[in-house]
């Protein structure tokens, strides 16, 4: 059996993993050289793959890659990347030309959902789930949809982009050009900024969560998180009705999200009860790179519906 190679390309780091089935053969991280531009990022990806190939004594036969954005299925170039150097660039084709192997690209949230479905929390606790909604709530907010084990990509390649649904058209400006996106309310930086604006104090999100028992503004911050999370998730459930929701990212570490946040879904739901499991991930910050490796696995090659 050939090994599965994956790269998770992020704004601050890139990581390579090589899997033999479920076992990790090799794993290596390095900073993403944002200051070198697009070509420098491509060069760094190539160097990382080649370095891992030398360490293992064999080169990949194909490569899966998770990216902070999406490859437009109609134009072939990258879009919606907060690593903006990638936008408008034919990353897949450039890597294939340099490496001489097929490269399979998916959004990092799609890779997260794929990994938790097949290697992580969904496989462990909800193995019969047919529709999985995998959320990343961290510096940004995104999501991926897995249906019958395959990523749903969509006609425009944007399926699952929950973070850029508009919750309030009068809300904060988003980097995407709209106002009031889910990300501008529910990302870690957005929650910290709201607390800072109200309290005139600067706390990290874990500190805000810890202070909620005695700090009125911290309590308000979490109450607002629960309410807006419920509203935003209900919109997804009304349309997709997933069998399980798994939450990754730093905001997902807030315990009350799974109790009070969950209870906030029902008032916005087109159903008299809400029974969908909302679970924590099992793979931590490894999920994205594991999902990227699964893209290169025979079963999941071009693991994209739509």
Task: Describe this structure in a few short sentences.
With 306 residues, the chain is α/β, with parallel strands linked by helices.
Question: Can you give keywords for this protein?
Answer:
306 residues, alpha/beta, Nucleotidyltransferase, domain 5, 2 domains, 6-stranded mixed beta sheet, 10 helices, 35% helix, globular, disordered C terminus
Percent in helix: 25-40%
CATH class of the largest domain: Alpha Beta
User: What gap, in angstroms, lies between the N and C termini?
Assistant: 29 Å
Q: The CATH topology of the largest domain, please?
A: Nucleotidyltransferase, domain 5
Task: Average the pLDDT over all residues and give the rounded result.
Answer: 94
Count of separate DSSP helical elements: 10
Oligomerization category of the chains in this entry: single chain
- Architecture (CATH level 2) name of the largest domain: 2-Layer Sandwich
Task: Give the overall shape.
Answer: globular
Structural class: alpha/beta
Given as residue ranges, the uncertain stretches (5+ residues, pLDDT < 50) are 302-306
Main β sheet profile = 6 strands, mixed
Strand order of the largest sheet: 12-11-8-9-10-13
Order of helices and strands: EEEHEEEHEHHEEEHHHHEHEHE
Beta-strand residue fraction: 15-25%
Number of domains: 2
Protein name: ROK family protein
Organism: Aeromonas simiae
Pfam family, one: ROK
GO molecular function, one term: hexokinase activity
Q: How would you characterize the overall build of this protein?
A:
With 306 residues, the protein is an alpha/beta fold. The chain folds into two domains: 122 residues, ATPase, nucleotide binding domain (Nucleotidyltransferase, domain 5, 2-Layer Sandwich), CATH 3.30.420.40; 162 residues, Nucleotidyltransferase, domain 5 (2-Layer Sandwich), CATH 3.30.420.40. 35% of the residues lie in helices and 21% in strands. It contains ten helices and 13 strands. A six-stranded mixed sheet has the order 12-11-8-9-10-13. A five-stranded mixed sheet has the order 3-2-1-4-7, sandwiched between helices. Strands 5-6 form a two-stranded antiparallel sheet. Helix 3 crosses helix 10. The chain starts with a strand and ends with a strand.
């Amino acid at each position: 059996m050939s090994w599965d190679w994956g790269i998770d390309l992020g704004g601050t780091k890139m990581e390579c993993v090589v899997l033999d089935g479920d076992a990790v053969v090799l794993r290596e991280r390095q900073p993403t050289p944002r200051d070198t531009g697009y070509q420098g990022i491509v060069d760094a990806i190539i160097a990382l793959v080649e370095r891992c190939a030398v360490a293992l004594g064999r080169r990949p036969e194909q490569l899966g890659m998770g990216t902070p954005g999406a490859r437009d299925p109609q134009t072939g170039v990258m879009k919606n990347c907060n690593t903006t150097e990638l936008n408008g660039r034919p990353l897949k084709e450039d890597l294939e030309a340099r490496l001489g192997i097929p490269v399979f690209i998916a959004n990092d949230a799609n890779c997260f959902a794929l990994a938790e479905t097949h290697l992580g929390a969904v496989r462990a606790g909800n193995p019969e789930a047919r529709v999985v909604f995998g959320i990343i709530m961290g510096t940004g907010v995104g999501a991926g949809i897995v249906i019958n084990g395959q990523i749903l990509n969509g006609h425009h390649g944007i399926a699952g982009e929950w973070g850029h649904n508009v919750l309030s058209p009068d809300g904060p400006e988003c980097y995407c050009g709209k106002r009031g996106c889910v990300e501008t309310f529910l990302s870690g930086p957005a929650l910290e900024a709201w607390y800072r604006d109200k309290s005139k104090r600067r706390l990290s999100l874990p500190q805000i969560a810890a202070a909620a028992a005695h700090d009125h503004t911290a309590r308000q911050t979490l109450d607002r998180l629960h309410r807006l999370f419920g509203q935003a998730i209900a919109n997804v459930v009304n349309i997709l009705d997933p069998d399980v929701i798994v939450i990754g990212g730093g905001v997902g570490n807030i315990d009350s999200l799974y109790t009070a946040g969950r209870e906030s879904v029902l008032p916005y739901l087109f159903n008299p009860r809400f029974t969908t499991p909302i679970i924590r991930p099992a793979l931590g910050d490894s999920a994205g790179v594991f999902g990227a490796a699964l893209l290169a696995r025979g079963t999941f090659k071009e693991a994209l519906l739509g």
